[in-house]
């Protein structure tokens, strides 16, 4: 049986980009931070590769989405942020470590009762 070389080459050229896309498939995860701290603004909020721009007043929330290769998940870390209340600003970090898997859509609420470490 004789191979039709142009036909085989066309199939390879057609399939190669699809295989590359499948091999390089990115996963994503979404993290939402909700500020439930009474009379305090939260700013510079981060958790590993997640970062929330700007600041959140009580009742506000914001989110960030991370896209990465599946082998870069899970993402794990403490939430760190600056809290400003009555003109005083302090850097805080949650005592709890949060883990985010590929495909997660996680909400973390920072409240008056959230256990935190403070810098002194």
Tell me about this structure.
This protein is of the alpha+beta class. It has a single domain, classed as Immunoglobulin-like. Helix content is about 15%, strand content about 55%. The protein is built from one helix and eight strands; from the N terminus they run αββββββββ. The chain has a five-stranded antiparallel β-sheet with strand order 3-2-5-6-8, with no helix packed on it. Strand 5 and strand 6 form a beta hairpin. The mean pLDDT is about 85.
Strand portion: over 45%
Q: Quote the CATH topology.
A: Immunoglobulin-like
- Total number of domains: 1
Report strand order across the widest sheet. 3-2-5-6-8
Specify the structural class: alpha+beta
List the uncertain runs. none
**What's the helical proportion of residues?**
10-25%
């Amino acid at each position: 049986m004789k191979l039709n070389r142009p036909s085989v080459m066309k199939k390879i050229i057609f399939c190669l980009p699809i295989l590359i896309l499948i091999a390089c498939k990115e996963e994503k995860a979404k993290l939402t931070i909700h500020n439930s701290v009474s009379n305090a603004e939260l700013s510079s909020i981060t958790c590993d590769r997640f970062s929330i721009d700007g600041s959140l007043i009580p009742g506000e929330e914001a989110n960030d989405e991370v896209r990465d290769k599946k082998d870069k998940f899970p993402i794990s870390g403490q939430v760190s942020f600056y809290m400003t209340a009555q003109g005083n600003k302090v850097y805080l970090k949650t005592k709890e470590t949060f883990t985010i898997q590929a495909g997660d859509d996680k909400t973390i609420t920072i409240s008056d009762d959230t256990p935190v470490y403070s810098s002194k």
